[in-house]
Records
---
Amino acid sequence: MRSITKTPMARQFTLLSQRRLISTARVNRNTTPKQPEEKKPQPISPHAAFYKDFGTPLVKVLGVTFVTYYGLQYLWEYLDSQEPEEHPNIQPINVKNDD
């Protein structure tokens, strides 16, 4: 049986590949990690502050207002359309002022 021996080129290749596994970067362990610089908060504009404080209440009030208005409008239309069906014999009275 023939023994397998590495050629000089193969030995050199394995040494190079083993060297790459070892990190040669220098690490200074005496320094503390850098802290991020604290940024000063930017001042809030008066317009943005107004909408930030009162935006949600304004939207709620406007929403309730629109729902109430259109709810009453459709209720009025519904009741107005049902009126002639309930009393077909009654004629509406037209009141005119002839002054």
---
Amino acid sequence: MTPFKTLTRLAFGALALWVVDASLPSDAAAQPPRRQPAVIELEEIEIEGRVQKPNAFYILNRSNLGYEVLDLRTSFVREIVESVRRDPF
């Protein structure tokens, strides 16, 4: 096949695709027309109040409070032994 015939076929093919595409309805034409938005008019009302100012927060890192474990100096052995010797009821 000669290059002229190939180029001619390619041109006719492109033309045929363009004609088919132009004959099909586009997406905009296929959609129904949009309705106008509804407008609601209200009477005038007066609102009283105050404008709140924005708040700001600052978060501090945890601080070491320096808690120490207390040593228990009182012995409860005598009280435990007495509770075991007593009757339960």
---
Amino acid sequence: MMRGFLGWWSRWVARWRRVSGRAAVSSHATGDSLMVTAPVAPGMGAAPMLDCESVMRQLWDYLDGELTPDRMVAIRAHVEMCTRCYPQCEFERSFLDAVATSAREHPALDSLRAKVGEALVARGLQQE
């Protein structure tokens, strides 16, 4: 199953490279994984992108926009090309959207907000 997908993915990347003119972007299948490389800067060749483990550790910070601009770009590039990280990122983005929608449609009671705030202050996680 994975090999069939990787074949499809390789064809898609090749087509994308032709259409977009991004010849420095490449991918190749190695076993059951996919290695993607991308240009570091114009004229500097290609270098491996971030690894999946590093991206997953920073995914919530990425989705919250709390990383440096360079790191945001690097993670976005990885997620857009990675067959493992893209679905996870989209799931977590959908989860955050659902939570935000729910919070707008069903706001928390003031008493609940006060209790949560007091608990955070008591644990030193929020200032009074």
---
Amino acid sequence: MIIGTYRLQLNKGFTFYDTIENLDYFKELGVSHLPRGILVNQVNG
């Protein structure tokens, strides 16, 4: 059952490894699911 979500926006300033390091914090907030944004490479130009 989904209790609460927190959408992750992964980028060079907040990576998948940062997410892992913050799992306890998300749990304290009551987050049960962490959907992430689509992983794509941005091309300028």
